[in-house]
Amino acid sequence: MNIIVAENSGFCFGVKRAINKTFEASKKNKKKIFTYGPLIHNNQVINKLEKLGINSIEKIEDAKNSILIIRSHGVPLEIYDRAKEYDIELIDTTCPFVRKVQTIAKEYHEKDYQIIIVGNPNHPEVIGINGWCNNEAIIIESIDEANKLSVFDKICVVAQTTITLEKWNSITKKLKEKAREVIEFNTICLATKERQDACAKLAKKADIMIVIGGYHSSNTQKLYNISKKYCKNTIHIETAENLPLNIFNKDDIIGVTAGASTPEWIINDVINKLKEKVGN
Ligand code: SF4
């Protein structure tokens, strides 16, 4: 049996950084620590954090006099002021790539551009970016929505970091007709694309593909769909415990990939279990 792990899989740079900063904080601090929303969509990591006494909150006032971790998605600008009001010490793990989008939104909003965010209006990253331009951005995720926009003098377009390049290209093409001046910042993060490309490449040569990640994680689901396109024997599991061991043959090439919120220890558990039960 040949087990090959995709070249890019598991935690992206931003999530790795957020998790590391959170574990470091728990070692160094005596104060109660909260995260502003779940740090990542991975139950195993969330359970680990809870064991360390780190819980997630939804309302900032619930972290009064404590430490609050801002996750990699970032938050609206007003949260920094509100934290001061409640005497909250912030540990800001906003991914630098997300920070870049936030600062562009702020800068061009101040220069009187209409900010347009191409992305999902309900995603925390997009809600956060909008909060850097006074919540006055227009958020669209389809060409249909772009078509319906009225015409502006000048617009500045940014992307939610995880959208596809196809979506960005098609929507920005339409937006060019919607203003006298259009400034575009393609702020798509390559981590997602690299992980998806590596998954496709591996799925093409694997007999069986194992996609590891939370059952509710949308980027894991996406990897599963990409993999399934090239390798019909694709399975999606959350941990080694979900691994069905009766489907593997000794000569199989087994491809392994993992979503952006899957920690390395879970990937290693799966590989070890495969080696142990099915053989090398
Ligand atoms: S996907 Fe990209 S932008 Fe988002 S947290 Fe990871 S590295 Fe940062």
Placed side by side, the strands forming the largest sheet appear as 1-12-10-11
Calculate the terminal CA-CA distance, rounded to whole Å. 5 Å
Task: Give the count of structural domains.
Answer: 3
Main beta sheet strand tally, sense and closure: 4 strands, parallel
Quantity of strands, as a count: 12
Sequence of secondary-structure elements: EHEHEEHEHEHEHEHEHEHEEH
Q: Specify the helix fraction band.
A: 40-55%
Number of helices: 10
Can you identify the CATH class of the largest domain?
Alpha Beta
Taken from the alpha-carbon principal axes, the silhouette is flat
The CATH homologous superfamily name of the largest domain equals 4-hydroxy-3-methylbut-2-enyl diphosphate reductase, catalytic domain
SSE class: alpha/beta
CATH A-level architecture of the largest domain: 3-Layer(aba) Sandwich
Task: Report the portion of residues in β strands.
Answer: 15-25%
How would you characterize this protein structure?
There is one protein chain. The chain has 280 residues and is of the alpha/beta class. It has three domains: 2-10 and 191-278, Cobalt-precorrin-4 Transmethylase, domain 1, CATH 3.40.1010.20; 13-95, Rossmann fold; 97-188, 4-hydroxy-3-methylbut-2-enyl diphosphate reductase, catalytic domain (Cobalt-precorrin-4 Transmethylase, domain 1, 3-Layer(aba) Sandwich). 41% of the residues lie in helices and 20% in strands. It has ten helices and twelve strands. The chain has helices at residues 13-28, 43-51, 78-85, 96-110, 124-130, 143-148, 165-175, 190-205, 218-230, 264-278; strands spanning 2-5, 33-36, 55-57, 67-70, 89-92, 114-118, 138-140, 152-159, 179-185, 208-212, 234-237, 253-258. The strands form three sheets. A four-stranded parallel sheet has the order 1-12-10-11, with helices on both faces. The protein has a four-stranded parallel sheet with strand order 3-2-4-5, with helices on both faces. A four-stranded parallel sheet has the order 7-6-8-9, sandwiched between helices. Helix 9 (218-230) links the parallel strand 10 (208-212) and strand 11. Helix 4 (96-110) packs parallel to helix 5 and helix 8 runs parallel beside helix 9 (218-230). The longest helix has 16 residues, at 13-28. It is flat. The mean pLDDT is 94. The structure holds iron/sulfur cluster.
